[in-house]
TrEMBL record:
Its main location: membrane. This is Apolipoprotein N-acyltransferase. Pfam families: CN_hydrolase, LNT_N. Residues 1-23 are annotated as: Disordered. The gene is lnt.
Length: 527
């Protein structure tokens, strides 16, 4: 007796005879994935609607649900392109579309991997949990590969306000991202349950779970310290100086002396205001990255200008300088410049930006764009944690993009930093959202570490951020600004600091375990 033919429902038909409804399925899912990516974009600075990250992740979860891994990869790629292409548009402001699109596509490929894994695990029980864990695993990979990774645009960095932000104090950026993705996946489960049948119990359970996640985040604020800059320890008075640049663009570097003079003049004006009693006397003055692209160790004129400013204000200045050496390299360095005695402690940036501060495989990348040759000399990589004892405080220094790397911030606080300083230069990104996106990352770091953050930029946005992520002061793009604030020296430790990378590894392992379970099941089925 011949074997019975398998029902059509077991394997979708392809080709011209495929039913019209099935042929419409892929465009519908693709459109939903693209809409999800655009919704996630709206959660970030520029639009600053953080709660839209929830329906954004829900859209991807619905789009890939029940699909094969290959289809999920396509949908994840669409989601990633819709999100990263506009989010990272600042990266092509002055270097053209090729580097910008190459960066955006490289990041979108990680979301293609996420889409494939999410689709593969969407038939498992408790799939919303595995979906959220896979977001953490995917961002962990993206933050490490290649060349040390590029963890910009993580879900957690969109949550500068609202109920999810408090979770940063308990599990860092990974826990915030997990909570957002879990809420989105539960919302997706509710939608799918409501569409598939009249049974309301699964949909109601999913909705209850989706509501419980932000509720838990809201309750998590209760044991956290308040928003005051001055609470939690003895205070120091910190001045943040934004001197501005002569013009936006890559050419700011050709006007190095003008940039240095701008910061000197702003500091001298502050000194005059202090002498007149109009401003408080600072214990420490913070200048941004690239405030002196003239090496003050080898250029006596630059050294005299900085010393004059430090002597006038009567406080050490943390100068962001480009220093020659070691050897053929340059060093992106924070230098504590003391009044009367000159240069003291230093911090050298530990994560120079690939293709911006150094060029790996130069010949290969030159094939795509000759802009790599704008980096004439590679920057070296520092080896010491950036804790500087100055102005009566232990100051944790991170430089520019280092603020988005978990380990570089965590080990600075572990080494004893009582407050955090971010020195940055945003002039090369013009009037884009890059600076606001960086400030958002610093806001999440403040909650994660329980430390106030003073962010100094050459051209904006400079900011002073309280330990609950509140923006106490902020400047505008391409203007001069000086902030003087009392900031508490805090030595408390958040749970996130005590756990370190543990939450990320545990959640990533959950996601990887779900993928492994699917792979084992498929292998057994093939046998």
């Amino acid at each position: 007796m011949p074997a019975a033919a398998a029902p059509d429902t077991q394997r979708p038909r392809t080709g011209p005879d495929r039913p019209p409804a099935a042929r419409r399925r892929v465009p519908w899912r693709t459109a939903l994935a693209a809409a999800g990516g655009l919704l996630l974009l709206l959660a970030f600075p520029g639009w600053s609607l953080p709660l839209l990250a929830v329906p954004a992740t829900a859209a991807l979860a619905v789009a890939v649900h029940g699909q094969r891994a290959r289809g999920g990869a396509w949908l994840g790629l669409v989601f990633g392109l819709a999100f990263f292409v506009p989010l990272l548009s600042w990266s092509g402001t002055y270097v053209g579309a090729v580097p910008w699109l190459a960066l955006a596509v490289s990041q979108a490929l990680f979301l293609a991997l996420l889409g494939a894994a999410t689709a593969a695990t969407s038939r498992l029980r408790l799939w919303p949990l595995w979906t959220a864990a896979l977001w953490v695993a995917d961002e962990a990979l993206r933050g490490r590969l290649p060349f040390g990774g590029f963890p910009w645009g993580r879900l957690g960095f969109s949550q500068t306000d609202g109920p999810f932000l408090s979770l940063a104090a308990y599990g860092g950026v990974p826990l915030v991202g997990f909570a957002v993705a879990l809420c989105g996946a539960l919302l997706a489960a509710a939608v799918l349950a409501a569409v598939r049948g009249p049974a309301l119990r699964p949909a109601a359970a999913a909705v209850a779970g989706a509501l419980a996640v932000p509720l838990l985040g809201g309750l998590a604020w209760l044991p956290l310290p308040g928003s005051s800059l001055t609470a939690g320890g003895p205070t120091v008075t910190v001045a943040v100086v934004q001197g501005d640049v002569p013009a936006a663009g890559l050419e700011f570097n050709a006007r190095r002396r003008a940039v240095l003079d701008n910061h000197v003049q702003q500091t001298l004006q502050l000194a005059a205001a202090v002498a007149a009693g109009d401003r408080a006397q600072p214990d420490l003055v913070v200048w941004p990255e690239n405030s002196s692209d003239i090496d003050p160790y080898t250029n006596a004129d630059a050294a005299r200008a900085i010393s004059g400013a430090a002597d006038a204000i009567g406080a050490p200045i943390l100068v962001g300088a480009v220093v020659d050496g070691p050897g053929q390299y340059l060093s992106n360095t924070g230098i504590v410049w003391e009044p009367g005695t000159g240069p003291g402690d230093t911090y050298v940036k530990r994560h120079p930006v690939p293709l911006a501060e150094y060029v790996p495989a130069r010949a290969f990348f030159r094939f795509f764009s000759d802009k790599v040759d704008l980096v004439r000399r590679d920057f070296t990589r520092g080896s010491e944690v950036g804790v500087l004892e100055t102005g009566g405080a232990r100051v944790g220094d991170v430089i520019c993009f280092e603020v988005v790397y978990d380990s570089l911030v965590a080990d600075t606080v572990e080494a004893g930093a009582e407050l955090l300083v971010v020195q940055t230069n945003n002039a090369t990104f013009g009037y884009s959202d890059e600076s606001a996106q960086q400030v958002a990352a610093a806001q999440v770091r403040a909650v994660e570490t329980g430390r106030s953050v003073a962010l100094a930029s050459t051209s904006g946005i400079s900011a002073v951020i309280a330990p609950d992520g509140t923006l106490v002061r902020q400047s505008q793009l391409f203007t001069s600004a000086v902030f003087v604030e009392e900031i508490a020296r805090r030595d408390t430790t958040t749970l996130a600091q005590r756990l370190g990378a543990g939450p990320e590894w545990v959640l990533a392992a959950l996601g990887a375990g779900a993928v492994l379970a699917v792979a084992v099941r498929a292998r057994r089925g093939s046998r």
